[in-house]
Amino acid sequence: MGLARVRLAAAAVLFLIVLTLTFAAVTLAPGDPLAPTDPRIPPEQAERLRALYGLDQPLPAQYLRWLGAVALSWDWGQSYQTGRPAADLLLESLPPTLLLAGSALLAQYVLGIGLGLLAARRPNSWLDLGVRAASLLVYALPTFWVGLMAVLVLGVGLGLAPTGGMTSAAAFELGPLATVLDVLAHLWLPALVLGLSMAGDIARYTRTSLIEFQSTEAGRAARARGLSDTRILLVHGLSHAGPRLVQMAAVSAPLLLSGAIVAEAVFSWPGMGSTTLQAIQARDVPVVLAATAYGAVLVIAASLAADLLLARLDPRIVAE
Amino acid sequence: MARSARAGAWVLAGLALLAAAAPLLAPYDPAQQLDAAESSRRPPLSSLLVVRTLAGEPRLAEDVHVDGDDLVLERRSGVERLPLSVVTNFDERGIAERRRAWLGTDALGRDLLSRLLHGARVSLTIGLLAAALALTAGTVIGSIAATCGRFVDQVLMRTVDGLLCFPHLALVLLLAALYQPGTWLLVVLIGGTGWMGLARLVRAEILRLRQEPFALAAAASGRSPAGVLVRHLLPNATTPLLIDASLRVGGSILVEAALSFLGLGVQPPQASWGSMIADGQGHLTTAWWMATFPGLMVAAAVIGSSLLADGLSDRLAGIRTTANRGARRRSPWAIRTWLGQT
Lengths: 320, 342
Prior knowledge:
The complex is a heterodimer.
Chain A: H1 2-28, H2 43-52, H3 59-73, H4 86-121, H5 126-140, H6 143-157, H7 176-214, H8 217-224, H9 229-267, H10 272-282, H11 285-313, H12 316-319
Chain B: H1 2-20, H2 22-25, H3 36-39, E1 46-51, E2 59-61, E3 63-67, E4 70-75, E5 78-83, E6 90-91, E7 94-95, E8 98-101, H4 112-147, H5 149-164, H6 168-179, H7 183-192, H8 196-209, H9 213-220, H10 225-236, H11 238-261, H12 273-281, H13 289-322, H14 332-339
Helix pairs in contact in B: 1-4, 1-13, 4-5, 4-7, 4-8, 4-11, 4-13, 5-8, 6-7, 8-10, 9-10, 11-12, 11-13, 12-13
């Protein structure tokens, strides 16, 4: 597949640009991440530490050494805080984030397409107006605030969901099935909250696109053939809206990751967002660099996947 | 619906007015912690009596009555007696002065309404200025990319692609942690990381408009390329730019709120809506109002900017229809998605 190869090469170049920008931002910032926090630490000790992490070398040398280690052995260096390899730290926090963001993606499509369909059935009905108002509202509400309110009302008030974390305190005693259920019980609320803000966009787009479809020739032909409303919208309309909906998934990847940082902070979810936030606050340079790069990989991968899927859905794109 | 543009503009103008007049409208000093032990976490619409004495800070009480020579203060922690001789504002009708918390008080006894109004200044300033900065930077960079040749175009657009790979919030967070910004640097950070989509939009609009007869005519009649750009191309791209800028006001307010919520934005004692929500997080079960009201303010501002953008884009669709350039309606949502970011 020619397209895949071209896109993959472009993605690799893009990744290099991202790595360089991040490295520059982090290393050129004022202040010294390894500055001794305690005045009793002797200066020679601090110097030794700097030499150990290679910070005594000029910046271009640091950059090449870092890039070489990453490129050759996916070695992101050691965390300044814990001394563990940064790649290990991220590998541990990646699955929870993928689980959360994936579920949020699912939630946003199920909700968005469902509500969009409902609204498109009767344009300008009360239901339609309600969906449009709601989609405006969920975009405007800050994710972390919705999260807090959900914790307050659904978690604390009604007791429908745990208020934070990914597992119960006694999770290690549970069997495999009970563990899955336990995680699901912790997952649904953060995933719903995270998916909500984009669900509005998707509902709006689905609605507009379906209404538009009904006045195209294909839409009128479907009606002339005597197909039911439901079938026209569900089968023909959605395949009309499909390519753009796929594209929106790629667009929502960076939004979901941004959202995951705050959602994880609200729900104390042990994922990449929490790891990144901690590393950023402690100025743990290797972990910050690795976390940003992992985030970028996810974003690039999502957009690559969307591109390729789009090419399958709409062969005209390959020709361009 | 020009109605929605007008409604959005009214909402934003109203909020801006509230922010500008905050010192006049706020019932109390937003930083004042009067008798914090008694006034902390009082619910909305509650009020406390203010008992002034000859010396020291006034005391607050839920209720008072006279017992012999003493005034008995009924306080959260129990009753407290003060000799009537030291109380300065007691007369036959009792104590007339009340401190009323319309929207409740926070954990330090500060008046939430006053803090919200003063916080509006910070949040709206950052939102508007960051959007203005992004608009300027995006226009300049987009114009340069479109007019300064293939090489410059490639370099700029690949940088844009690279920057768009960062989750926006992560990028701002990273820079905020590294540079520990005050309010003004926050504007620079949020605006300086929000121009990429606009640059793409400007570039695309210029490339499109350059082929139009009026632009070709201007170039043929001897206008310099810069002249064509400034006098003919950019003015015709105003509406899509305004749509994006207006959405970006809301987006910037959301980013600032998230940043302050995570503790990397506006620093105390200054309050912004985001940092007020963060303050409320720890008291969610005992003082729901602390986090609730600032969130509603953020929502109001963002809804205002979205409605404005929505209305503007209908106007744009109208212009395109009358000019018979294809009437396809571009909702700001579609544009936002197309730009690949908020």
